[in-house]
């Protein structure tokens, strides 16, 4: 991918225009694509963004199913599909982003002079033009786990958007250049993590949420539920140091600085009691991981300790977005954690 093609705009496709499966639908898309559907109310707009990472198919699967359903949305709906070329790389949905390019969902503060920057700029220009009343950015997590939403705000509008998909909201202040960081009172943006790409429930979460987002007359007021949104605050980002080597195995790998169990994803959203063994470390110190909060403070020694080369948590923690993909663990992060204050 050496040049950014102009965004392809597809107006009001008919159900017969849409391929019968998501892989064939992806083949219909040659470049970053905007699909526009006219709503019953043409005075309001909503924006559904997905595939900012090429290995996260649930949002695209939901769009394909929605367009085949022949339903007219409540308001004008815009569907922006970003990393099409990465997703089309064989095998489909296996590449998060091309190694020589920046992560598209880290480009929304610029610069806008490279390929992912120009795609981000196209999306920003679109939002300025259509002034959407609500924006969703739909992803899959890098590892297996339940759905959750991520937001910079827990105001009623953001809670309402999150509740279309999930019962959990992660409230963050960490700035990485992601789309959701551009949220505002008049243009709420919420990220939806549907669960892992291989988790069967992820496609259902994306479909049912999109159906509500597109067809409900009002999406900025939370409807009655028989549950309350679980709000988790102040996530701490766990990363590997630049020279650290990671492995996933039942037994310690001598060439790895940190060895995690192959089923490490089962920690996602479970409460870890203090003293839980999480990994094996090659050395006796905490020199291969860094835990950083939204203020940039190093919290590693507060959260973790090492006993006989075992990495353990000092305090009760809840983890999410734990990945068993070593490439993502190295290039992005290993996971996020919040301090669990429950007794």
TrEMBL record:
It comes from the Bacteria. SUPFAM superfamilies: Zn-dependent exopeptidases. One of its GO terms (molecular function) is metal ion binding. Residues 52-171 form the Succinylglutamate desuccinylase/Aspartoacylase catalytic domain. Its cofactor is Zn(2+). Signal peptide: none annotated. InterPro entries: AstE_AspA_cat (IPR055438). Keywords: Hydrolase, Metal-binding, Zinc. The keyword Transcription regulation does not apply. Pfam families: AstE_AspA_cat. This is Succinylglutamate desuccinylase/Aspartoacylase catalytic domain-containing protein. It comes from Neiella marina. The lineage of its organism: Bacteria, Pseudomonadati, Pseudomonadota, Gammaproteobacteria, Alteromonadales.
């Amino acid at each position: 991918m050496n040049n950014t093609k102009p965004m392809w705009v597809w107006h009001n496709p008919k159900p017969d225009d849409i391929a019968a499966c998501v892989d064939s639908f992806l083949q219909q898309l040659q470049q970053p694509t905007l699909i526009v559907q006219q709503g019953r109310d043409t005075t309001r707009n909503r924006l559904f963004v997905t595939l900012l990472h090429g290995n996260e198919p649930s949002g695209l699967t939901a769009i394909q199913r929605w367009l085949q359903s022949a339903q007219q949305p409540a308001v004008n709906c815009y569907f922006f599909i970003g990393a099409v070329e990465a997703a089309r790389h064989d095998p489909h949905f296996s590449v998060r982003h091309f190694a020589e390019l920046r992560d598209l969902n880290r480009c929304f503060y610029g610069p806008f002079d490279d390929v992912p920057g120009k795609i981000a700029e196209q999306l920003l220009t679109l939002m300025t033009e259509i002034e959407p009343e609500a924006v969703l950015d739909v992803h899959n997590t890098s590892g297996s786990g339940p759905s959750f939403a991520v937001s910079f705000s827990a105001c009623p509008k953001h809670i309402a958007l999150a509740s279309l998909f999930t019962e959990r909201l992660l409230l963050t202040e960490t700035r990485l250049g992601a789309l959701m960081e551009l949220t505002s009172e008049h243009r709420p943006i919420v990220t939806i993590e549907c669960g892992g790409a291989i988790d069967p429930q992820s496609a259902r979460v994306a479909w049912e949420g999109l159906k509500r987002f597109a067809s409900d007359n009002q999406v900025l007021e939370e409807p009655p539920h028989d549950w309350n949104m679980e709000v988790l605050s102040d996530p701490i980002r766990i990363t590997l140091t630049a020279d650290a080597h990671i492995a996933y195995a039942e037994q310690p790998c001598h060439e790895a600085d940190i060895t995690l169990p192959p089923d490490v994803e089962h920690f996602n959203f479970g409460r870890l009691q203090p003293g839980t063994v999480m990994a094996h470390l090659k050395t006796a110190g905490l020199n291969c991981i860094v835990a950083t909060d939204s203020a940039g403070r190093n919290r590693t020694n507060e959260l973790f300790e090492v006993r006989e080369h075992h990495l353990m948590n000092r305090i009760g923690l809840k983890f999410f977005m734990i990945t068993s993909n070593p490439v993502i663990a190295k290039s992005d992060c290993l996971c996020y954690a919040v301090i669990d204050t429950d007794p």
